[in-house]
Amino acid sequence: MKKVRPALIKYPMLAFALFSICFIDYFYRNLFASIYHPLVSVLLVILTLSPLIYISHIVYLRAYKTMLSEIKNCYKDMANEVSTVEEVNSLSLLEHSNNLENLFCVYKSVQKQYMDLICQLKNSNKILVQNNKFTNAISEITSEILRSGDIHGIMQLILDKAIEIIPNAQKGSILLLNNDYLEYRAMHGYDIDALKDFKFTPKEIFQSHLEDIYEPVIITEIEKFNSNLNKDKFKVLQDTNSFNIKCSISCAISVDNQFYGTINIDNIENSLAFTEDHKSIIKYFAEQIGVALKNAQLIEKILYLSQYDSLTNICNRSYCEAQLDILHQECVKNNQSYSLVVADMNDLKLINDNYGHEAGDKLIIAFTDYISSLQEKPEIFGRIGGDEFALVYSNKSSAEVIELLENVRSHFSRVPFHYNNRDMSNLTFSYGICTYPDEAKDIPTLFRIADQRMYEDKRSFKSQTYNI
């Protein structure tokens, strides 16, 4: 290191000093030639070089010393490392090899655990995304079932959500039972116009061959299975590309433990598109369809009970009045006429007192059933009281309506009323008629006049029957 110092510092600085002396002397001699003196030149050299030498010492020599110190420290560290390496080298080559192999095995094990963890996280993320979609679908379907009365819209929503959530789903359909036949009620990816009139019998679907028809099933040979259909049905399915399916997953729909149809999800690319994991998903959607259908039935039943009389199955008073209001508005708009009839059973109280209310109910049912069976049945027929009824005939004169009602009277006069295998008194009734617009312009007046005339007819009946 001592030999390096003069070469790096001493000689360059000495050369620089000599060059500076010559330059200063030359500059002084040429510029001030008339007053040149050697001592003055030396003094100028000393004054010029002193600050330069000081600055060089500060900038370069100190940095050199610092660098030299660092180099010495590095040298000591390297010496220590070399001594350590010499100790390590004293181990056998076999030990080195074993240590390296063990280290590599540990690395592979850690890497495998890391990759497994990444796969688990990816799968967990997929499951979370699918569960989130599933939860949203449940919420939307439930809301639609509770809110909407459009059963076809609900079926289409459930099918669309099933295709959105079930992996690899591309097409789908819902078949529902209607008068012993299965009909398409919702489709995705098929020509609904071409298949809207297509019907299956329950024996023609895949579930009919299963021990448990309500368990989901995966089908991979659609065309082969449907080859037993008649030629016309087979051709319709073939022409609509309904056999262009590699794999299908299907589940039966039940309402009150009764078979009601199927939901079918299809894939057109891969025969292994659906697995056992998908069965629980499609079964959920089949259950939701069952809930929707049950809900629709309940709504329909509630609606029916709110509009129709439970004993006679004709309009109740409120629905009769609502229907009459609609017909009245149409007749006013189109300048048409109609006749309102108010009818009341005769001697129903005697029947109830002597034979019980069941006999009276049978009498009422016999009257309403016969009126409903007539070819010229009224446009509106309602039970507006215990034994009081309203009948509306449009575009008929009072004479024509009277003729119809007298024929009904004639029928019951010829056919005795039976109850518990006994002939009872014949069924009789009284009635009154009022015609719009000839006799009244509004519904309350029509009812009032018809009611008055009915009571007049009833008084006439009693005076003839009981000689009052």
Index terms:
single chain, 468 residues, alpha+beta, Beta-Lactamase, Alpha-Beta Plaits, 3 domains, six-stranded antiparallel beta sheet, 12 strands, 60% helix, elongated, disordered N terminus
State the helical fraction.
55-70%
Quaternary structure of the protein: single chain
First CA to last CA: what distance? 154 Å
What's the rounded overall pLDDT mean? 79
The low-pLDDT segments are: 1-6
Strand content of the residues, in percent?
15-25%
CATH homologous superfamily (4th level) name of the largest domain? GAF domain
Q: How many separate helices?
A: 13
Tally of discrete structural domains: 3
How does the overall form come out from the CA principal axes?
Answer: elongated
The CATH architecture category of the largest domain equals 2-Layer Sandwich
Structural class of the helix and strand makeup? alpha+beta
Write down the CATH class of the largest domain.
Alpha Beta
How many E strands? 12
Encode the helix/strand succession as letters.
HHHHEEHEEHHEEHHEHHEEHEEEH
Blueprint (SSEs and pairs):
Elements: H1 4-31, H2 38-89, H3 93-147, H4 151-165, E1 171-178, E2 181-188, H5 192-195, E3 199-200, E4 217-219, H6 222-225, H7 231-239, E5 247-255, E6 258-267, H8 279-307, H9 317-334, E7 338-345, H10 348-355, H11 357-373, E8 380-383, E9 388-394, H12 398-414, E10 417-419, E11 422-424, E12 429-436, H13 443-466
Antiparallel strand pairs: 1-2, 1-6, 2-3, 4-5, 5-6, 7-9, 7-12, 8-9, 10-11
Helix pairs in contact: 1-2, 3-4, 3-8, 4-8, 10-11
